[in-house]
Each structure stands twice: as C-alpha cells, then as structure tokens.
Specification:
three-stranded antiparallel sheet, five-stranded antiparallel sheet, globular
Length: about 160
C-alpha cells in the first residue's frame, strides 16, 4: 500500500513571523531560539531545526472534524521553511529517532485505530492500518510530548 506524508503548508504561517511578541502572545504563540538538535521538529519542512534557528511555537488544530476527536496541540515552524514534498512511501528522517503515536481516522473524523511504534518501524504500521478500507488518514504524533507531527494519506 502506498502512503504519502503531508507537511503543513508554509503559507499558513507566513504572517506569524512578522508579528511582534505581544501579538504572538495574544494568539497563544511564542518565538523560540533553538538551543539543541534534534529537539525542535518543524511541521512544514519535516526537518529538525538547527541550533540557533528561530522557530514559532503555535497551537495548531490538526483534527478539524466536528467530533469528540477534534484536536489541537503545540507545533513548531522554522522561519523561512519551505513546505516539504516527499515521495510516496518516503518517511521523514525526523521521525526515525522518535517514539510515534499513530491515530487512524475514518472519513467522518472518528478515530478507529491507534498504535505506538518506534520511528524505525512506522512503514509496517502505516501499511497495516491502511489495509483497513475505512481509514481515511492517519495522524502521526510524537508520542512523548503528544504533539502532531504529520498527516499521512493513501496514494
């Protein structure tokens, strides 16, 4: 089964980088200077931010369906990041060294399957989940902090 990782669109965050600290704070966001790597995974480039880079921490609604599974959490976006365009079945390197939580949703946005896997084993679990024709997409989360990493769809 072919799958596709979908990064967040850089255009969604362009205006945020020109906001002053007060405006960011009013929106529940903050500018962060990266102090260690790997530590801050960018949801646009699907790469770990480098030491010294500036990133934004924002609350992002990644599950927008009007169900009990509607969800948002903190994410990081690198300043100047370009939207990652991965090949089919390509897994972003930033996932490989992390414990992941996979949450599978049907077309109405209800979670119908979930699993925790090491990043080195994510392909097998994505394929197992997508064997279920009722699964529309899979949200990958970093298991320890619980934050959204990327959305995966069938190709």
């Amino acid at each position: 089964m072919a799958f596709q990782f979908n990064a967040l669109d850089a255009a969604e965050f362009t205006d945020w980088f020109s906001m002053d600290e007060n405006t960011l704070a009013q929106r529940g966001a903050a500018r962060v200077l990266v102090e260690k790597c790997p530590d801050i995974p960018c949801r646009v480039s699907l790469e770990d931010a480098a030491i010294g880079e500036r990133v934004l921490a924002v609350n992002y609604t990644h599950q927008t369906a009007n169900t009990p599974y509607r969800a948002s959490h903190a994410i990081f976006v690198r300043e100047g990041a370009q939207t990652a365009r991965l090949a089919a079945n390509e897994v972003p390197a930033l996932l490989r060294h992390r414990l992941l939580s996979l949450r599978a949703f049907n077309a109405s946005g209800t979670m119908i399957d979930a699993e925790v896997v090491e990043g080195t084993a994510v392909e097998a679990e994505l394929n197992r989940m997508f064997d279920n024709a009722n699964i529309e997409d899979i949200h990958v989360h970093f298991a320890k902090p619980g934050c959204f990493a990327a959305r995966v769809t069938r190709v």
